[in-house]
Please model this.
Amino acid sequence: MNREDLIGELKNIVGDRFVLVEKEDVIVYEQDGSIFQVMPEIVVLPGDVEQVSAVVKLAKQAAVPIVPRGSGTGLAGGAVPAEGGIVLSLARLNRILKIDLENRIAIVEPGVINLDVTKAVAKDGFFYAPDPSSQAACSIGGNVANNSGGPHTLAYGVTTNHVLGVEAVLDDGVIVWLGGEVPDTPGYDLCGVFVGSEGTLGVVTKVAVKLMQTRESVRTLLAIFDEMDNATQTVVDITAAGIIPAALEMMDRTTIEAIERGAPVGFPRDAEAVLIVEIEGLTEHTDRSASLARAICQRNGAREVKLAADEAERQRLWKGRKGAFGAMGTLAPNYYVQDGVVPRSKLPEMMRRIAAISKQFNLRIANVFHAGDGNLHPNILFDMRAPGELDRVIEAGAATLRACIELGGSITGEHGVGLEKKAYIGLLFNEADLEAMARVRRVFDPDNRFNPAKLFPTPASCGEIRLQPAQIPAGLWI
Amino acid sequence: MELLRNKPGDTATTKVPALDLPELYQCVHCGLCLNQCPTYRALHLEPESPRGRIHLVKAAAEGRIELNDRFKEHIYLCLLCRACETACPSGVQYGRIAETAREQLGPPGSPFARAVLNFVFTRLLPYPRRLRFVFNLLRLYQRSGLQRIARSLLPGKLREMDSMLPTVPAKFYYPVTSILPAIGERRAKVAMLNGCVMPLLFGDVNEATVRVLRRNGCDVVLPKNQICCGALNIHNGESAAAKQMAAIVVNSAGCGAAMKEYGYLLRDDLAYRDKAARFSSLVKDTGEYLAGIGLVAGLRPVEMTVTYQDPCHLAHGQRVRAQPRTLLQSIPGLKLVEMDGADRCCGSAGIYNLTHADMSQHLLKEKMQAVTATHVDAVVAPNPGCMLQLRYGTQRFGPDVKIYHLMDLLDRACSETDLTPK
Model:
């Protein structure tokens, strides 16, 4: 099959309008929220699961890589087509198919925006718990692929804790349901295998998600610190005291500056760090826990602890927090965000190490992260156009991840491995671990065509898996 | 890490330095704008999203893609509603990027359409007398029965366009005196933009605006010789009289947004930039201004349920959202019901409803569905473009509701106050 035939066939499946091949169209799909760029040859936007299946079959026949894409908000290059080929955008599969409040589930298509699930059930007193910062734009399909978290992960868990089942298109175009609408389906937890697989096993076309009941009461504290050490120690003390906040977030001075420059919400620009402590539950519980948390903040030298007076003020705090990554553009043209994890008790030490790395490589680093989880997001600020700067950035990033592992943590909390961390995954897993994972992948994706060149390290360090370029008939693809 | 951007030699064509705007480097392509963009929501194609268009302009600036027709289509499918600016955590001024790209590309459409537009913009809008003449003709066409005959003869597409023509009212608004004194205690002196099309199509709104301002203690100055938006031209703005103005009030969101940007537009003009910046700092939307000084006129009840449509150039362009709502809620008996997507574009967008009729109608239909769901008696939209589009929407898609300017309802609520000068 040559290129023209393939394009013709794709157009027959999804319609002319939804097959993009012109450079002025496909170039837009060369990036996601990360710093990686590779241009796809073709972008296809199917409108239903049958079309997805037909496209997958065709891609197999043509032996072309296929890269599923949601809203393209990922931070690890997961949706960047590393080996070219077809980007399969699921943006048009954006229907909420079923809302079943009695059983507290919803069935949605992968292109549905995360926040739209909550919006659809909010009036009935329900919400969808995983809330990545990009929740106003990111898709449920992307969340499933990356097993995304969010500030409220601390109390409610990540995506995999909220997905009961998925419908997926497998490598040969077969449409299957993994898991179901009820918890505890027997057999292998293949739904669990798909969640977090970063598009390497197949294409998810429907997702059964859990809905949670909105809590009776919520208290949101903003604690302001003049010393980073005091803020990190507060995090350790709050969790040690047995308080489980719904969210416990930290932002440092540089992050506050970015937010206040971009879309200001009123964070104090002279503070070294602020914590957002949110407690949800019954009123008696939230009042008690909030006053305990306040006391711990004050004991650790917080300059001020403010309780959000109303929902509007609470929303404003979250708007600032959730816009933090996007606001980095006010400080530098590029940012490289890390996603390391350390045990909570190591937070103070880790922040000191990040400060040292910043100094060592002479790079500004803005910290905004899920402190309660020990899930760090140091954003290394830089300018891609400055010669040599990128190399320093990558070295500094690697130094950060190494520090996380040394302190007993991990290299990714919620953003996925993608392209960004595949070079570092070998730091965390040995060859046998990786080979076991590669075998799972081969079961679902024997030709290595689903989102190739992601997740696994380069072939040399990884058993038998061979990330070969797609076998495209000679002379047909440039 | 071989997959990083800016690969050397990745250029297909020549660089376009004029497009290499600093705003481009403030975008970190986080994607938070996508779901707020009307064209992306309608099509789900990223080249029709703000992030996509920014990336296209950047690629063109770097010489990676050509400024061809396809590129132009993407740039012009944008409504310039600037909802993405509200969504952007980095404060990227997308409007400036899109407008610069359009300058570089030139206007869209066939040579004939471009000639017509050029005529309207350069030969008609800046000349109030010519404009008035054209609207007199239009009124004659509509009232003489000619329009009815024409509709039966015109081919489909032209008939469709004819049906979108707003009805020209019987009365234009050009007050004979240029200073209309405050009623009751004098609190401020403001200049008001009468505008180019406003006095012809919405003379009643301008009249209402003047009454509301006067009843709330404002001397209203309507400078003579106003032309389109350049209306209170900057030089006049610097005249001795204007210096005493508390504000320059504008009841058309598009004009207000443009006038607030004079400082930016003339940033390279050494002679005018400071004056322009000072002028812009005085410009206020009428609702914004009145909410700021507070209403003092007695308000009588207006029994009505309304929803509020945020004009893009007010909500996104001027960041004025709360003030008009506060004013509406201060009217006794009036109930404000929020509709879904109140700050989403209705598809009017200047002449977009003519140049991109399909997309415009799609957005209008969605808007009217949102209005229907609120079960209101009327929609309030303080901007002439939105009002025309929504009126057309009530005819084409329903529901049968009234479309008001904020000043219409405030005028109705204030009208108990005696207007006779004291």
The mean pLDDT of chain B is 86. Chain B has four domains: 17-105, 111-164, 179-293, 304-414. Chain B touches chain A through 41 residues (CB under 8 Å). DSSP finds 23 helices and nine strands in chain B.
